[in-house]
Design goal:
By secondary structure, the chain is an alpha/beta fold. It is built from eleven helices and 13 strands. The strands form three sheets. Strands 1, 2, 3, 4, 6, 9, 10, 12 and 13 form a nine-stranded mixed beta sheet that branches. α4 packs parallel to α6.
C-alpha cells in the first residue's frame, strides 16, 4: 500500500522550491547593455561591487546603442539598460525606472603623439569642412565623423553655429569615415597621428585609449570644468531598470549611487549627480 505524503511535507517542499527559485533569481547573472560610452566604466563598477558581493555575476554586452539597450530591456533580455540620452516616451513602460547618474565631457580627441594641444572652434569648422587640412606641424588631419543622429554629432554641432554646414560638406568628401559606435570612432582616431573626432572622456579613461582631449577655445574638457559650468559640451548617462528589479540589480544600483561608486565614476571621467 502506497501512502499519500503528509500535507505538512507537501507544504514544506513547496515552500522550499519557491525559496530556492527566489534565491536563484537573486543570484543570477546581471546583464547590462546599451550605449558604448558607458560600458567601460560600468564594467569597473561591476568588478568593484563584486569584490564585496561575489555571489553576483555580471555580463556587460558589447555596444547595443541607447535605443538597442532600451529594446533589450523591454524584451526582458537584459536587466539594466544604459542610455546616453533621456529614454523616449515610446521606449518606456509603466514598469521601468529611469535614473540619470552621471555626465561626461564630449571632447575633441586626437592621437597622443599629435603635438597639437588645443584648437579654436573657428579652426575646428575649417578642419571639418576640409578647408584646413593640416595641423600646425604639418601632420595631415584625419577627420572621423559619426552618424547624423548620434549624441556626439548633436553635441559637436552645438560647438559652433557653422559646424552643421561643415559636417554636411564632410559627409560628401571621399575618404572621411563615419564611425558606427564610440569604440569604432576611437579606433579610427587613434590609428592616425593627425586623427580628429569626438569622443567621450569616459571612453578615453576607462578603456585606456592612446588619445588626448584638446583644449577648445581655451577651456580644457575636464570633469572639474564640467562641475564648475566652464565646459558645457557633455553627454548625460541614464540607467533604466524595472521598478521592482531582483535583489542583485537593486543593490548594484545602490552601489553606483554610493560614495564608492561616485569615486569610480569620477576617476573614469564623469561628473556625478548629487542625490
Amino acid at each position: 500500500m502506497i501512502r499519500k505524503p503528509h500535507r505538512a511535507i507537501i507544504v514544506f517542499c513547496t515552500a522550499f522550491l519557491v525559496f530556492a527559485s527566489l534565491a536563484s533569481a537573486d543570484n543570477r547573472t546581471i546583464i547590462i547593455g546599451g550605449t558604448g560610452a558607458a560600458l567601460g566604466p560600468m564594467s569597473e563598477l561591476a568588478a568593484s561591487f563584486k569584490q564585496t558581493r561575489p555571489e553576483f555575476e555580471f555580463e556587460v554586452l558589447p555596444s547595443l546603442s541607447s535605443g538597442g539597450g532600451m529594446k533589450a530591456l523591454a524584451a526582458g533580455r537584459i536587466d539594466i539598460a544604459l542610455t546616453a540620452r533621456p529614454p523616449k516616451a515610446k521606449e518606456l513602460t509603466s514598469s521601468m525606472n529611469v535614473i540619470q547618474y552621471a555626465r561626461t565631457p564630449v571632447v575633441l580627441a586626437t592621437a597622443k603623439d599629435n603635438q597639437a594641444m588645443q584648437l579654436t572652434s573657428r579652426n575646428l569648422v575649417r578642419m571639418i569642412a576640409g578647408e584646413l587640412t593640416r595641423w600646425p606641424d604639418g601632420t595631415p588631419v584625419g577627420l572621423v565623423i559619426r552618424s547624423k543622429h548620434s549624441a556626439e554629432t548633436i553635441i559637436l554641432e552645438s560647438m559652433n553655429p557653422e559646424i552643421p554646414e561643415a559636417i554636411k560638406k564632410a559627409r560628401l568628401r571621399p575618404g572621411v569615415p563615419v564611425a558606427r559606435s564610440v569604440q569604432e570612432a576611437a579606433d579610427l582616431i587613434q590609428g592616425h597621428k593627425g586623427g580628429l573626432g569626438t569622443a567621450s572622456l569616459s571612453v578615453i579613461l576607462s578603456e585606456n585609449r592612446p588619445l588626448k582631449s584638446l583644449v577648445l577655445d581655451g577651456v580644457a574638457p575636464t570633469v572639474e570644468a564640467v562641475e564648475k559650468g566652464e565646459y558645457s559640451f557633455v553627454k548625460l548617462f541614464y540607467l533604466v531598470t524595472d521598478k521592482q528589479p531582483h535583489k542583485g540589480v537593486g543593490e548594484f544600483v545602490g552601489f553606483i549611487k554610493s560614495s564608492a561608486g561616485a569615486a569610480i565614476l569620477r576617476r573614469t571621467g564623469h561628473a556625478v549627480n548629487a542625490d
